[in-house]
Write a structure and sequence with these properties.
This protein has helices at about 20-40, 45-55, 100-110, 125-135, 150-165, 240-245, 245-255, 260-275, and strands spanning about 5-10, 75-80, 90-95, 115, 125, 180-185, 190-195, 220, 230-235, 285-295, 300-305, 310-315, 325-330, 340-350, 365. It has about 375 residues and is α+β, with helices and mostly antiparallel strands. The protein has one domain (about 5-350): (Glycosyl)asparaginase (Glutamine Phosphoribosylpyrophosphate, subunit 1, domain 1), CATH 3.60.20.30. The two termini are about 35 Å apart.
Amino acid sequence: MNGFIAVHCGAGFHSDSLRKDYQKTCYTACRRASETLSRGGNAVDAVENAIIELENSPLTNAGYGSNLSWDGLVECDASIMNGQTLHFGACGAVSNVWNPITLAKQLCVKQCESLSLGRVPPCILTGQGAKTWAERMGLQIVDDQKMVSSKAFRNYKHCKRKLKRYSVQNDLKFSPLDTVGAICVDSYGVVASGASSGGVSLKHEGRVGQAASFGSGVWAEMSRDGTKPSIAACTSGCGEHLIRTQLAKNSAESLQESSPTLGLDRCLKEKFLESPFLWDIPERLGGSLALTFNPQIGEGELLWGHTTRTMCIGYMSTEIAKPKCIISYLPPKVQAGHKAVVSGVPFKVSMQPIPVLQWEVTTETNLNGSL
């Protein structure tokens, strides 16, 4: 299977001292996704495996090493969307699940199944219910402390000390916003998108961010009749800002304009920076990684845009030897949260005839009524 994968390590601020480490993390994630496609996996599999690599890195605010809540615990959000079936799976504020993106993928996949007595499979699970479901699916469950990296604990102590000195309610500068995400198109033309996040530092127990919210963290929609391109997007930034503006869905749909670059730029300006839903927010912090793809000719365009100081991305085709990884910067005199920068690159994918979608409908009987 051929395909194209793109990942990001977040829109926020990436220090120069860690620049090579962030780029290496994106590099490794792209390689793992490319290998997944080369072994016959599809776009959803590639997105999952790319994000697993990102979650396992202590550099990122996802999975292991996530920001800690007020009580010093890791609570993760993750989601994945299949652009062919349009199914969506997400988990929110879940603890002890080593790779939350795998839980989200399992929820997405099981949308094709039916339950006994006409029950509907869940697409979003949170908290203890999400953990219990993950255990039932055989996912890796670990102790609380195994999810905490030394970097996250140092940041937690720093934030606590800072709050004792200053009564600042909306200071996001000390809180890493490096949510991770991935988008992919495979040689069948199927697109997928995924995101994973540990949320903002010192968040309230049970808080759910954009990475688990439909239309805010991820979006993927495959071309049905060839009249419109396939689209996918994943976002990063302050979750509350992204939820209010449904930035993933709006970013993806903006690429269906005649000029995808101008479309994404207009989206970030009109539907994010100038959004009436953010009227009370002085600095609007967000970023989007998106792609548009024409399956008729096997050509697409990858774009990224952000209002944060930096955004770290990587991308790769299965038909090239190694990924390209960069850190995108706002212009030097532009203040973060007030203007956006947009850039992009074209790409190609060698296509294969798409197989007929088989709906595997199974009935699951469970006497205790659990899912």
